[in-house]
UniProtKB/TrEMBL annotation, chains A, B:
<dbReference type="GO" id="GO:0043200">
    <property type="term" value="P:response to amino acid"/>
</dbReference>
<dbReference type="InterPro" id="IPR011008">
    <property type="entry name" value="Dimeric_a/b-barrel"/>
</dbReference>
<dbReference type="InterPro" id="IPR000485">
    <property type="entry name" value="AsnC-type_HTH_dom"/>
</dbReference>
<dbReference type="Pfam" id="PF01037">
    <property type="entry name" value="AsnC_trans_reg"/>
</dbReference>
<keyword id="KW-0805">Transcription regulation</keyword>
<dbReference type="InterPro" id="IPR011991">
    <property type="entry name" value="ArsR-like_HTH"/>
</dbReference>
<dbReference type="InterPro" id="IPR019888">
    <property type="entry name" value="Tscrpt_reg_AsnC-like"/>
</dbReference>
<dbReference type="GO" id="GO:0043565">
    <property type="term" value="F:sequence-specific DNA binding"/>
</dbReference>
<dbReference type="InterPro" id="IPR019887">
    <property type="entry name" value="Tscrpt_reg_AsnC/Lrp_C"/>
</dbReference>
<dbReference type="GO" id="GO:0006355">
    <property type="term" value="P:regulation of DNA-templated transcription"/>
</dbReference>
<protein>
    <submittedName>
        <fullName>Leucine-responsive regulatory protein</fullName>
    </submittedName>
</protein>
<dbReference type="GO" id="GO:0005829">
    <property type="term" value="C:cytosol"/>
</dbReference>
<dbReference type="InterPro" id="IPR036388">
    <property type="entry name" value="WH-like_DNA-bd_sf"/>
</dbReference>
<dbReference type="Pfam" id="PF13404">
    <property type="entry name" value="HTH_AsnC-type"/>
</dbReference>
<dbReference type="InterPro" id="IPR036390">
    <property type="entry name" value="WH_DNA-bd_sf"/>
</dbReference>
<dbReference type="InterPro" id="IPR019885">
    <property type="entry name" value="Tscrpt_reg_HTH_AsnC-type_CS"/>
</dbReference>
<keyword id="KW-0804">Transcription</keyword>
DNA sequence: AATGAAATAAGATGCAC
DNA sequence: GTGCATCTTATTTCATT
């Protein structure tokens, strides 16, 4: 992956609706080689998917909560089961296994506070957890799916 | 926004590379009305953008850190300045203003631990902060940009 | 590897109903 | 909403540098 590939990725991370010709213009390539590079980036799994991003407020899922979980001592099998269970919950949009004091970090979206309570009850009903800390977001100051493409 | 719009959004959140005809098939519409709905959803800002998602590991930004920040007592102007400063950092992919014990939550991506240290120094050099807690992610168990489309 | 041209297929867009 | 015409773009091929 060279610098031109990274330029293409930068463009596609910002706007995947552009034509190949336009992307080529922006990175200094004609359409054919630009198209070939994009195909390769997809085949190599560098580009994983193309998605539409939706305004959370406008679809009624405007409440974001960060959930820090300490699972305590559990078997590998238990943890695997826990991961499967939590991953399957559609409100969980991010689910990270952490190092340090917190074992897992979730980002959860819900329509309102009341439905967060419902989620929380589902969560603790499904698994015996040592500690769960919920922190509510007030404002999304920045959110991007674009990774930096400059070293 | 009716149930059909939500179906369209569910499809486009999962795969924005599908043709309008194929999306129509999946939601029970022919191409023209499906296309019109998509145009409207974009015009109304429900769909905010179409982007390519990239594998963080494969582009060398595989380290994710959650940063919880307590700013302490500061003026509104100071906080605004802080928000602008942090938003401009490309490593910061998420930046949330929180309620409760933590004032801000960041999700930061970096190539490696060493570059996180560089980021951290930049962060604390730019603003006088009361407390900064960095938590490192070990594994991305789930990550989706798709919001639930069912009530 | 890239370019430009060109041909074909697929899809987006617009119009009549 | 449907069906169809048209226009744009994606995709592939090829000769050339």
């Amino acid at each position: 992956m060279d610098a031109t590939d990274r330029k293409i990725l930068a463009v596609l991370q910002a706007d995947a609706s552009l034509s190949v010709a336009e992307i080529g213009n922006r990175v200094g390539l004609s359409t054919t080689p630009c198209w070939k590079r994009i195909q390769r980036l997809e085949a190599d799994g560098v580009i994983t998917q193309r998605v539409a991003l939706v305004d959370p407020e406008k679809v009624g899922w405007g409440v974001t909560v960060f959930v820090a979980i300490e699972t305590g001592d559990h078997s590998g099998e238990w943890l695997e089961n826990f991961a499967t269970l939590v991953s399957a919950m559609p409100e969980v949009v991010e689910f990270w296994r952490m190092s340090g004091d917190v074992d897992y970090m979730l980002r959860v979206v819900v329509p309102d506070i009341k439905s967060y309570d419902a989620f929380y009850r589902k969560l603790i009903a499904g698994a015996k957890l040592k500690n769960v800390t919920s922190r509510f977001a007030m404002e999304r100051v920045k959110f991007t799916t674009a990774l930096p493409m400059t070293a």
